[in-house]
Amino acid sequence: MRVTIHPRNPPPLEDLAAVIENLNFRSATASVEQCPDLRQPPFKLAAPGISGNSCVADIGGQPNLFPSPNFDAKYSLLELAKEMQMSPSGGFLLGAGAAPFQDLGHNAELAPNISWKSEHASPDFNDASTLEIRNDTRVIEVNEVKSPSCERIQSTNCALMMNLYGSSGHPGPVLKVTARGRLGNLNLTNCIRLGLNDAFGDQMPISLGGVFLLKKGKAKFHVMPDFPNKEDLPFRDRGQIEKEWLTYHEFEAPIVCLTVFHSSDPEGLGLRMEHTHCFDAEGNTKGGHYHYDIQDDEQEVEYEAYLLPGYTLYRIDQPSS
């Protein structure tokens, strides 16, 4: 895989919090606090925290789907961890991307949520027997009548496009963000990243990753169906994907959301600026790609997020187009 490495030098967490708390919500806070144990409800992640050697990666990209799927774009989360220079002795990946069609036999959404550790003398990402893996990754898909499901997947593979936040998975200080009652048009993640861009510009690009909980209210999501038949490809344009192919759903809280986003892309790496995939930690019917919360008069939307910046950005297998 083609890999380019881009150091990041984000400001202190306190400076980030001072910018983030100016969210377009009726009530919002941002502070530096000790991360709770994210293995516990309501998050049920595969590691207790998101601290330690934090990094982000953008793998593949939307050109691997449009205008026609690139069926050679097949990846392994453990191999990607290796390319991100993570330690086989222990680590944690979360994020958003496409499910491994090579294993499922069809297309779907993926919410990576996987940790590993090892007491082996020579742990090796290429030899899973040397690793103790906890795989709480979810695949979100729709059936023939576009009814969604959200289930754990045994595979550690992915495909087409992937955005990952990597860390040692340790507890530690994090950015805790709370928000209630959206006022503007921007969703939670875009509000944060554009606010950071306004404050720090292209001279200090910031890449953030972590988890947020939709605690109250509801939100809109999409779920990719299976690939079209060969005779229906290539896609005519992005409008066809958005209007005719993707399936859209509204789900009530609580929903756990795994996110990676960037304030800017000064190197022109073709980054996906925001990517968030969500799952139902208590059931199997809710999840997908997060669009935005839905404001109504019945209940204000409410969020709780735990985020950290990455100190290295890896651009992996960037499409040529």
Would you mind describing this structure in some detail?
GO terms for molecular function: hydrolase activity, acting on ester bonds; zinc ion binding. Residues 18-316 form the DUF1907 domain. Keywords: Hydrolase, Metal-binding, Nucleus, Zinc. The protein is 12% helix and 41% strand. It is built from 5 helices and 20 strands. The strands form 2 sheets. Strands 1, 3, 4, 5, 6, 7, 8, 9, 10, 11 and 20 form an 11-stranded mixed beta sheet that branches.
Helices and strands, with pairings:
Blueprint: E1 3-7, H1 13-20, E2 25-34, E3 55-60, E4 74-76, H2 77-83, E5 90-98, H3 101-104, E6 109-111, E7 113-117, E8 132-135, E9 138-142, E10 148-152, E11 157-167, E12 173-182, H4 188-200, E13 207-216, E14 218-223, H5 238-245, E15 247-252, E16 255-262, E17 274-279, E18 287-294, E19 302-309, E20 312-316
Parallel strand pairs: 3-20
Antiparallel strand pairs: 1-20, 2-12, 3-11, 4-11, 5-6, 5-7, 5-11, 6-9, 7-8, 9-10, 12-19, 13-16, 13-19, 14-15, 14-18, 16-17, 17-18
Question: Termini separation (Å)?
Answer: 16 Å
Category from helices, strands and their pairing: mainly beta
Beta strand count? 20
**Approximately how much beta-strand content do the residues carry?**
35-45%
H/E element string?
A: EHEEEHEHEEEEEEEHEEHEEEEEE
Radius of gyration: 18 Å
- Ranges where pLDDT stays below 50 over 5 or more residues in a row are none
Subunit structure: Monomer.
GO cellular component, one term: nucleus
Keywords: Hydrolase, Metal-binding, Nucleus, Zinc
Subcellular location: Nucleus
